[in-house]
C-alpha cells in the first residue's frame, strides 16, 4: 500500500467531511436576513419611552417560585419581591420561549431585532454581526444602552450615526472568580449618572425628554454568577435580589426625572441556564425565560383563563389565579415597537401577542380594540413585506419556481396576499375589530409558513446531494481495500468521464441560474468525483474480489446488515448512554466466550481475565450521572491512580534493566502530575472559599500543563517498546486530567488507557492462530508489503469507531454541546474568554484521542499490516453514522430536539474527521518504534 494514495485518501476525507459539516447549515439553518423591505409602523405609540431590562441568564422558575432556594433562614420566601408585586398587581407576565442556540447574542437579537440569529455568528464568538440587521434600537429616536461589551456594540454597528449610544465596562471586569453583582450595579450607576448629567447638559436633557426613546440595561451578573456557582447556589439567589433592587431603583430614577406616567417597562432574559451552570443547547431550563411588562400601554393583571394558562412548570409559582401569557422571544420586538409607536424592525418575524383576539395579550391601548386591530394589520404588512422580498428573489432565479400557493394563488390576476390585506382593511373600516384581528392572525400564520417555504425551498435538493456524497465517499474509500484491477477499456473510461462532466456541468449551470451559494458548487463536485472513481476502479475490483474468494453477494449483504446494525446502535447510544456500557460487556465478555476457541481461552486465562475486568471497569463510566458536582477527592483520586500507573511502569523498567534515561523521564513526568495535583487542590479550595484564583496558582498551572503536554514530543529519550512510549504520552496528559477535571474524569482516563493497552494484546492473540497454523511459516511473520482485506478487519474497525465514541462519552455528556463544565476552566482562565475556554475544553477532549492514535498505530504494526490498513477499513464505515444524524437534524419541534439534532451531527462529523488525524498522528508519533517492532528488533 503506497503512502501516496493513502495520504491522498486521508487528506481528501478530512477536507470532504469538514466542508460537508457546513451542509447542515445550508440545508436547515440559512441566514434569515434580507434587505430591501419597506418599513411599517403604527405611527403613534402608547408611551413616550421604553425601558428594556435584560437579566442575562435568568431562569423563569427561580425568579417566580417562592422558596425556590433552600438555604435555611437566610433564604427569603420571595427572592424578587418587587418584580413579583408587579406581576401580581400592575402588569402582565409569562414565559418567553427562546430558540437554539441559547446564547447571549442570539437571544438579544431575537428580543431587539425580532429575528432568529444567523448561525454563522458562532464563528465570530457571537459578538460581531455576520450580516447587519435592523432593530428597535435603530428605529427609535435615541437609545441609551448600558452593559456588556459583548452585547451592546453589535446593536450600535449598522445603526444610524449617534442613534444608539453605549456605555460598556472593560472586558476584564467579567471575572468569574469575583462578585459579578458589581457588573449590574455598575449599569445602575451609569444610568443614574446619565440623568444627573442632564441637569447641566441641555442637549442631553433634550434628547432624554424626546419621544420614542429607549433605555436598555443589560445585567450580565446572573449569567456570570450562574456559570461560576450554578443557578441553585446562594450566590445566584443574591444576584437575583440585586437585579430586583435595580429594577426598583430604575423605576424611581425614571419617575423622578420625568415626573409623568409615560414610560413602558419590559423585563426579560436572553436565555436561561441548566442546573450545571451552562447554556447554549435546547435544554428547557435554557429556553424558558421570564417576561414581565408594565407601565404605560400595558394591561393590568387578569384572572386566569379557562382552560388554565398554567402547567406543571408554573404551578409552584403560586400565581395560578393570574393569567400567564407566553410568547416566542422574537415577539418582544413588535411588542416594544408598538408601545412607543416606532417602525417595526424590517427583519422581524415576531407576532404581536395581541393579534390573537381569543386570548389577552400585553397591551391596553387608549383606543381599545380599534387600535389592536390596526396594530394587527401592521404586523401582517411587516411579515408580508419580508415574505415578498424573499419571494421575488427566489422567483427571479429559481428554475421551474413553484410559488407558495396560499399567498400567491391568483383570482382575476390578483394574488391571494393582496386580496387578504384588502379584506382586513375593509373589516377595520367597518368597525369589525374582532374579525379583523382574527383574519390578521390567519394571514400572519400564512406569512410565516410562506417564509419557511422559501427558506427551505432547496432543502430536498441539498439532502439528496449530501446523501449521495456520503454514499459516494464510502464507495470511494472501499477502493483502497480491494486488490488493484487492470485498467479498463478506453471506451468505457471515456463514457464514464463524459457522463461525470455532463452531470457536474449540468448542476453548476443550474446553480448559476439560481444564484445559489458557492458552497453548492463544492457539494456537488465531491459525489461526482467519488462515483466516477468507483465506477472506473471499484466495480471491476469488487467483481473480481467476489469471484476469486469464497465470499458470495449474499454473504456480503449479510455482513453489510451487521455493520449497519452496529453503526446504528452507536447512533442510538448518543441518546442512551448506557448502550456504551452494554458495548463493553459485548466486547469484554460475550465476544471471547462466544467467538474464541476454548483452547485460546484456557491457555490465556490471565490476559482474558484482565481484558474482561478492564472492560467492566471502563464500562461503568457511561452509567454515571451526567450532572456532577465539583469533587476534589475524586480529582485527587484520579491523579493518584495515574501516578500509580506511572509507578508500575517505573517498576517494570527497573526490573528489566531499562536505560536510566527512560526511568528518569518517567520520574519527571510523575513529578509534574504531582505538582499539578498540589496546585489544583489549592486553586479549588481558594475558588470554593470565594477568595478568587491566586495569580501564582494560575501561572503555575499554565506552566505545568504546557510543560507536561509537550514533554514527550520534545524528549530525546529512546523508549524500549511501544508500550513504554504510550505510557509516556499517558503521563503527559495526566496533568490535563487533573487541572481540567471536575470529578471522575481522571479515573476514566486511566481505565480507558489501560483498556486500550490490553486491546493490543488481545487482538494480537486472536490474530496469531491465523498466521501460525496450517501453512504458516516464518515468512508469514514478516511485515506485509501490501494490504489484503480480511473480514475480521471489519470487526477491528468497528472496535476502533467504538473507542472513538467512548473517548468522548467518558469525559463529557455528548447529548448536549453545553454539557461541559466550566468550573475547571476557572483554574486557568478566571476572566470570560469564550474562545480560550472552549480551546481548553476541546484540549481535554482531544487528549484521550492522542493515546488512541498511538495505540491504533501500534496495533496496526503488531498485526504486521502496512500503515493505515485498519483505518482504511474504518474510513469506509464512518459515514453510516453521519448520514443518520444528518437526516435526523430538525429545525422544528421542541427546542431540546432542535439543539440535540444539531449537536449530534456536528459532534459525530468532527469525531470521525478527527479519527482520520488520529491515525496519521499515531504513525508519526510512534515513528521508529513501529519500524523496530515490524522488523523484529523489539519483542
Verbal overview:
The chain has 939 residues and is mainly alpha-helical. Helix content is 60%, strand content 5%. It has an eight-stranded mixed β-sheet, with helices on both faces. The chain has a two-stranded antiparallel ribbon with strand order 9-10. Helix 8 runs parallel beside helix 11 (234-258), helix 32 (834-862) packs parallel to helix 36 and helix 34 (879-888) runs antiparallel to helix 35 (895-926).
Helix-strand layout with pairing:
Layout lengths: L2 H19 L1 H6 L20 E7 L4 H5 L16 H10 L1 E6 L6 H10 L22 H4 L2 E6 L4 H5 L7 E5 L12 H18 L3 H7 L4 E7 L1 H9 L4 H25 L4 E6 L15 H4 E8 L31 E2 L3 H9 L27 H30 L7 H4 L1 E2 L2 E2 H14 L3 H23 L3 H20 L11 H24 L4 H31 L4 H21 L4 H18 L2 H6 L1 H16 L11 H24 L4 H29 L6 H20 L7 H11 L3 H4 L5 H28 L19 H18 L24 H29 L6 H9 L1 H10 L6 H32 L1 H8 L4
Parallel strand pairs: 1-5, 1-6, 2-8, 3-4, 3-5
Antiparallel strand pairs: 2-7, 6-7, 9-10
In short:
This protein is mainly α and about 950 residues long. Strand 3, helix 7 (about 150-155) and strand 4 form a beta-alpha-beta unit.
> How do the strands line up in the largest sheet?
4-3-5-1-6-7-2-8
Number of strands: 10
Specify the number of helices: 36
Helix vs. strand class: mainly alpha
Instruction: Please give the radius of gyration in angstroms.
Output: 32 Å
